[in-house]
From TrEMBL:
Record has Magnesium as a keyword: no
Record protein name field: Uncharacterized protein
ANK repeats: 139-171
Transmembrane segments annotated in the record for this chain: none
Organism: Stentor coeruleus
Alphabetically ordered keywords of this record: ANK repeat
Length: 234
């Protein structure tokens, strides 16, 4: 029986209500009742004191459990709690993709700092699908895919040097990085991506998606070279 459900009864009946509660909840009810009495007594009297020494007032305020040491301890507990770690990782991922979407080459240093301060960088390799370099956003796109789609040449080059996995497809579009770059007509990015090995199927899809004759010829030339290296050409 909850104490709160019996508040409509008279004040004199409260002890009987508490005693009729299960033994494991009686202590909790008595504590609540004690707090009510204590608060009501303190609100009846206005206690004021004239302070002449400001330092004394500061020392008194610092003893309240909202001082810097208390806030620092609470902050530390929140950060290292499971919920705190999850929120911190979510904020890190959000900032990571915000920087990429913006596409400012000067902000690559922010990505570098996020990668270096990633608490899981020693647990996951660069080509790990769950690493910060390959982790997908809510649209199902990897960082390097977003850079290819947006035409951010400097970011694509940066991710390639970092060892990001270029073959992970975007879940939303079901296409790889080279397909996205070809579809949106970013010739320089396609040329950069061609330094990596791509399957004939991926090259074929990229050729089908592009509307640029220059990119098409680039992909065709690469496909022809690879075909000759496999089968030999006269």
């Amino acid at each position: 029986m909850r104490l709160r459900s019996k508040l409509s009864k008279s004040f004199d009946e409260l002890p009987e209500i508490i005693l009729s509660s299960p033994p494991d909840t009686q202590n909790k009810h008595w504590k609540h009742l004690r707090n009510v009495f204590l608060a009501s007594c303190r609100f009846r009297f206005q206690e004021a004191e004239t302070v002449t020494d400001i330092s004394k007032l500061i020392r008194a305020v610092e003893k309240i459990p909202t001082d810097k040491a208390y806030r620092a301890r609470r902050c530390s507990e929140q950060i290292f709690s499971p919920m705190g770690r999850a929120l911190e990782e979510h904020r890190r991922e959000q900032l990571f993709f915000q920087v990429i979407e913006k596409g400012d080459p000067n902000d690559i240093r922010i990505l570098e700092e996020l990668i270096e301060t990633d608490p899981k960088k020693y647990l996951r390799k660069a080509n790990d699908p769950n690493s910060i370099l390959n982790n997908k956003n809510r649209e199902g796109c990897t960082p390097v895919y977003v850079a290819c789609r947006n035409g951010s040449l400097e970011y694509v080059d940066y991710f390639m040097k970092k060892g990001a996995d270029l073959k992970i497809k975007c879940s939303l579009e079901n296409e790889s990085c080279i397909e996205a770059a070809a579809r949106w007509g970013y010739g320089q990015i396609v040329k950069l991506l061609m330094k990596q090995k791509w399957s004939p199927e991926e090259i074929k899809r990229a050729k089908k998606l592009t509307k640029s004759k220059q990119i098409y010829n680039m992909l065709e030339k690469s496909h022809h070279k690879r075909h000759c290296s496999w089968w030999g050409c006269s």
